[in-house]
Amino acid sequence: MTDIHEHTGHQRSPIDKEALRRKYREERDKRSRPDGIAQYRRLTGDLLHDPYLPVQPREPRTDHVTFTFVGGGFAGLVTGARLKEAGVDDVRIIDKAGDFGGTWYWNRYPGAQCDTASFVYMPLLEETGHMPTEKYAHAPEILEHCQRIGKQYGLYDDALFHTEVTGLTWDDDAQVWVMTTDRGDEFTSQFVGLGTGPLHVAKLPDIPGIDSFRGHSFHTSRWDYAYTGGGPEGEPMRRLADKRVAIIGTGATAVQCIPHLARDAEELYVFQRTPSSVDVRGNVPTDPTWFASIAQPGWQQRWLENFTANTMGGFGAGGDDDDLIQDGWTDIARRVKAKVFERMSSGGEFSGDTLLDAFEDADFEKMEEIRARVDAVVEDPATAAALKSWYGQLCKRPCFHDEYLQAFNRPGATLVDTDGKGVERITERGVVAGGREYEVDCIVWATGFEVSTEFTSRAGFDLVGRGGVRLSEYWASGMRTLHGSHVLGFPNAFLVQLTQGSNHIANVPHNMSETGTTIAKIVGHAVAQGHATVEVSAEAEEAWIQRLLSGGTPLDGLGSGGRSLQIPGSLECTPGYYNNEGQAPTAAARYNFLGFPGGPLAFFQYIDRWRRSGEFEGVEFR
Ligand code: NDP
Fold first, then answer.
1. CATH code linked to domain 203-276+396-448
2. Domains 64-199+451-557+597-621 and 203-276+396-448 are alike in CATH topology
3. Residue 272: pLDDT over 90
4. Given Cys at both, which of 112, 157, 262, 321 links 407, Cβ 3.0 to 4.6 Å?
């Protein structure tokens, strides 16, 4: 039996798969815990405060609008833009933030940038004529793009910011939704859209002493530049020059801001429970001449389709050989494809097992390279060993960065690895881990967002549909939709989210753009034809659920034929929000993880045909 650590050198010996599987399982077991998502709590008090914009006074609204969208991030912006194009002028967007941007409004931490290539990540590039300045644009440019969309489509005209919905009730007599908010609004809307985002409720670990810290603290989604100095463009945070800073968490957010903290803080302690896998980023500025050559009519749709086809999301629908993006996401799929061809050219037949074997082999190789990169970059061997991730690359959100690992070579930066246990407690003076107290001036919580809690709990309100039935009641035995958007008993309401639809994790805004286009088509038709209501039929909703179930659920080990594989969502993986924090879901929660059998590309092809047919199959207009 070979030592698995031997594989990280340049002269790699064949991978000992059994040893790796065992190591992965050991590391997962260290992190498994019975409380799952209940280990966390939400931000309260000052931690929730919007540090970016003051709340503007305004009069409550008591009018009627055609379409109200809850959420001013990409979901609301793309849906609003498509509605305007479809001739629905009367669109009101509501957001708890002080401007458009959604996740990009809140996440202004230093170093924030998109992890999916800008050309496919940023929606409506062709329509707005914007050229992303980098292959992976930084947060200020993305926020500005959100504002650009808002301005170009007149979405600011009736937007209500710093406003939270408190009630959303269907009035069956008037056939309108009645909306109330925390700003005293009470108005009606014929249609409503909900794009409250998968990652908008920030969380903290509910550990002893968390309220006792006497220093300064904030969550990464409420970055306190007044305390740190500097700004979202990455300017030096000079006020940290004499500060000892702790950052808790090493997920995708921490990976992006740690290089900045390591550069600017006098001392930085990085508290790690599970290392992220950090692959090569390879960011480059956009060459305007090259951009002009690709930006021909229809280019962004072609790029979107091409990217989906070249990620794992393209597998179920045939993929595409011409990879325009060429990055870490498409590399995963390219390697799996190569392994499939290898097996088939040596006489194997294509089957589900061939694909799974190929996936596992490619993943082992990729992760060995990612671990070898840690050794190549990080000078201290103990720190390097602790930064290696022992799980399948898609078990957790893959990260890509070219300065993160390097940050640990700075003299002031210390990795405090907790061997899967996490920080124990917070004291008045600092953070306790491994039995030692680390005294610090500031704690930065990079501990992420709620994902697997109930939709209505995260949204902060429950829809009350036909006959007074609440959405939470209707979904008590599991989420039910058509296309992830329409719910029986909730006429004229549309959800914009990933589950039960495309589930394309490599490019989240793409899911929203497609759904926004579909909604605009339906609502445009209803308004043009004078229909009062649009609602999914009971048969169509049931048929859709059965269709989704026919693909199995990821937590059952989707398509794994009962094999224990490190595939996305699997309970074999180390705990995280991709797999319900490693806990078998309740029978009801199982429905929250359903995606279209065949994957995202197959779904996008399906929904395009559905829209083009003009028949709106499964949806009834009255
Ligand atoms: P994550 O949920 O990914 O990370 C939270 C981190 O906090 C994890 O490292 C977690 O460890 C750690 N943690 C939780 N509790 C404790 C504890 N008690 N002690 C020590 N550590 C603890 O949140 P992020 O904000 O990093 O990212 C959330 C998502 O946002 C990403 O997955 C991605 O989808 C998105 N994102 C996208 C970006 C982009 O596209 N550019 C950039 C940043 C984020 P453990 O892993 O053990 O649970």
1. 3.50.50.60
2. yes
3. yes
4. 262
Tell me the best of 199, 404, 416, 581 to mutate to test the pocket of ligand 1, counting ligand atoms within 8 Å of each CB and taking the most.
199
Domain residue ranges in the chain: 64-199+451-557+597-621, 203-276+396-448
- The pLDDT, as a whole number, for residue 581 is 86
At 6, the pLDDT band (50, 70, 90 cuts) reads very low
Q: What is the pLDDT confidence band of residue 12, given thresholds at 50, 70 and 90?
A: low
> 281: which DSSP letter?
-
pLDDT of residue 316: 63
Q: Which residues contact 473 (CB under 8 A, 6 or more apart)?
A: none
pLDDT at position 2 over 60:
no
Backbone angles phi, psi at 557, to 5 degrees: 85, 65
Minimum mean pLDDT range among 193-197, 244-248, 512-516: 193-197
Compute how many other C-beta atoms are within 10 angstroms of the C-beta atom of residue 467: 8
The Cα–Cα gap between 64 and 179 comes to: 10
- Return the CATH superfamily for domain 64-199+451-557+597-621: FAD/NAD(P)-binding domain (3.50.50.60)
Do 416 and 438 form a contact (C-beta atoms < 8 A)?
yes
Enumerate residues 6+ apart whose C-beta is below 8 A from 129. Answer: none
pLDDT tens digits for 114-130?
999 999 999 999 999 99
Decide: 248 in ligand 1 pocket, CB within 6 A: yes
pLDDT of residue 556: 44
Neighbours of 131 (CB within 10 A): 15
At residue 318, the pLDDT reads 64
d(CA 384, CA 417) in angstroms, rounded, equals 11
Measured CA to CA, the distance from residue 220 to residue 509 in angstroms comes to 21
**What is the C-alpha to C-alpha distance for residues 133 and 291, in angstroms, rounded to an integer?**
10
* Residue 154 CA, ligand 1 centroid: distance in Å: 35
Which of the pair, 316 or 347, is modelled with greater confidence? 347
Give 253 Cα–ligand 1 centroid separation in angstroms.
6
Percent of the chain residues past pLDDT 90, beyond the cut? 77
| 438: helix, strand or coil | strand
Distance 262 CA to ligand 1 centre (A): 18
**Size (the chain), residues:** 622
Where are any strands of DSSP class E within 224-375? 244-248, 267-272, 278-279
Lowest-pLDDT range, 119-133, 210-224, 256-270, 313-327? Answer: 313-327
Q: For the whole model, what pTM was predicted?
A: 0.94
The pLDDT score that the predictor gives to residue 320 is 64
Q: Is 250's C-beta closer than 6 angstroms to any atom of ligand 1?
A: yes
H or E stretch covering 256: helix 252-264
Pairing outcome for strands 413-417 and 425-426: unpaired
Atom of ligand 1 nearest to the CA of 575: 48
DSSP secondary structure letters along 369-405: HHHHHHHHH-SSHHHHHHT---S-TTTS--EE-SSHH
Which atom of ligand 1 is nearest the CA belonging to 136?
Answer: 41
Exposure class string for 10-26: b at 16+ Cβ within 10 A, else e: eeeeebbeebbbeebbe
Query: Locate tokens 């833009």: which residue?
Result: 81
Tokens of 520: 């605009």
